[in-house]
TrEMBL record:
Record GO biological process: branched-chain amino acid catabolic process
Pfam family, one: ELFV_dehydrog
UniProt KW keywords: Branched-chain amino acid catabolism, NAD, Nucleotide-binding, Oxidoreductase
EC number of this enzyme: 1.4.1.9
Record: active site: 80 (proton donor/acceptor)
Family statement drawn from the similarity comment of this UniProt entry: Belongs to the Glu/Leu/Phe/Val dehydrogenases family.
Family matches, as InterPro entries: Aminoacid_DH-like_N_sf (IPR046346), Glu/Leu/Phe/Val/Trp_DH (IPR006095), Glu/Leu/Phe/Val/Trp_DH_C (IPR006096), Glu/Leu/Phe/Val/Trp_DH_dimer (IPR006097), Glu/Leu/Phe/Val_DH_AS (IPR033524), Glu/Phe/Leu/Val/Trp_DH_bac/arc (IPR016211), NAD(P)-bd_dom_sf (IPR036291)
Keyword Plastid: no
MF GO annotations: L-leucine dehydrogenase activity; nucleotide binding
Catalysed reactions, semicolon-separated: L-leucine + NAD(+) + H2O = 4-methyl-2-oxopentanoate + NH4(+) + NADH + H(+)
Keyword Repeat: no
Protein name, per record: Leucine dehydrogenase
Domain Glutamate/phenylalanine/leucine/valine/L-tryptophan dehydrogenase C-terminal: 144-351
Length: 365
């Protein structure tokens, strides 16, 4: 991989490699764009097959955060971290504290939170070393685990997409195929079950499947079979790139709406599902609930205010669908347009001589 060439192609600002021999920390912080504000995005801990795969994941996820934060109306830029390691075996206090010191060294250009493989407890350890971390324990007056709020946002966005596809936003009786029933998807299944949807689930973790079957009467299928099941809605809630050349011909769903980041393997796959008439709720618009929630901590956390904003994901998805129809473009392009236009508007309206000079954290009461 030619790193600078890749960074130049998508205009990345910074890539930070963190190595701490004592704790075994190997982390990559990617900062994509800070036009709107400091880069906020979670920390993923994962067993990457190669260093190149980890770098690429950090870069792709960071860029997604720029678009997510912009489309959600947040005054935040986009960044993300990946820690190379097995979250079941390689975590330690030393590792997260060492990582916290690297974040502190960036002096507010990057603020972290949870992602796949990291928890509130991990964020609390990072917080021992830096204030540039969100999603820490409610005991600190913070917002805690973002996953249930992300799930609520996905549920709201799914309803907006269902309205477009089925003429009603009721999910009662709808069959929803959920890929991955981890932190976000478990809470999503709860909302769907309570509304009377029927659930089909898959996960590579058998305990996660068992829990969904027991708690929500979900039907379980093999991980490879989830794409082709008879359903109304496909909800990708595991890792990215599950909308691709292999899976698209299998889809029976009329709506794709889930929490996973980077769901399209490539933009051409967004065009393909558009041509098939599938209503696609763009990933970074529908899954913004978590970041909206943790970002509220920067103003002094108020859960009511945060949830009200998250509810607005319904309108955001409806708006993206409206732009797509108006301009006759796929929804993923409409979402990109929304985000890019906001970033450009803010870039152009900023004056070098009239900046407020305060870090966003200084607004915390
Ligand atoms: N946690 C949050 O607040 C947010 C999460 N997301 C994204 O949503 C997705 C899920 O996040 P979490 O629920 O936090 O993660 P998680 O790690 O709790 O859940 C992911 C689940 O997917 C399963 N899985 C992995 N590969 C699979 C496969 N091939 N087939 C079926 N299942 C598979 C895992 O076993 C796990 O149970 C991720 O892509 C994450 O980046 C996005 C925004 C916010
Ligand atoms: C988990 C969120 C709090 C932030 C993030 O990294 C995301 O939305 O993907």
């Amino acid at each position: 991989m030619e790193i600078f060439k890749y960074m130049e192609q998508y205009d990345y600002e910074q890539l930070v490699f963190c190595q701490d021999k004592q704790s075994g920390l190997k982390a990559i912080i990617a900062i994509h764009d800070t036009t709107l504000g400091p880069a906020l995005g979670g920390t993923r801990m994962w067993t990457y097959a190669s260093e190149e795969e980890a770098i690429e994941d950090a870069l792709r996820l960071a860029r997604g955060m720029t678009y997510k934060n912009a489309a959600a109306g947040l005054n935040l830029g986009g960044g993300k971290t990946v820690i190379i390691g097995d979250p079941r075996k390689d975590k330690s206090e030393e590792l997260f504290r060492a990582f916290g010191r690297y974040i502190q060294g960036l002096n507010g250009r990057y603020i972290t939170a949870e992602d796949v493989g990291t928890t509130v407890e991990d964020m609390d350890l990072i917080h021992e070393e830096t204030n540039y971390v969100t999603g820490i324990s409610p005991a600190f007056g913070s917002s805690g685990n973002p996953s249930p709020v992300t799930a609520y946002g996905v549920y709201r966005g799914m309803k907006a997409a269902a309205k477009e596809a089925f003429g009603s936003d009721s999910l009662e009786g709808k069959v929803v195929a959920v890929q991955g029933v981890g932190n976000v998807a478990y809470s999503l299944c709860k909302h769907l079950h309570e509304e009377g949807a029927q659930l089909i689930v898959s996960d590579i973790n058998k305990d996660a499947v068992r829990r969904a079957v027991e708690d929500f009467h979900a039907k379980a299928v093999d991980p490879n079979d989830i794409y082709g099941v008879e359903c109304d809605i496909y909800a990708p809630c595991a890792l990215g790139a599950t909308i691709n050349d292999v899976t698209i011909p299998q889809f029976k769903a009329k709506v794709i709406a889930g929490s996973a980041n980077n769901q399209l393997r490539d933009t051409k796959h967004g065009d393909m599902i558009h041509e098939m008439g599938i209503v696609y709720a763009p990933d970074y618009v529908i899954n913004a609930g978590g970041v909206i929630n943790v970002a509220d901590e920067l103003y002094g956390y108020n859960s009511e205010r945060a949830l009200k904003k998250v509810e607005g994901i319904y309108n955001n998805i409806a708006r993206v669908i409206e732009i797509a129809k108006r301009d006759n473009i796929p929804t993923y392009k409409a979402a990109d347009r929304l985000a890019e236009e906001r970033i450009e508007r803010m870039r152009n309206s900023r004056s070098q001589f009239l900046q407020n000079g305060h870090h966003i954290l200084s607004r915390k009461s």
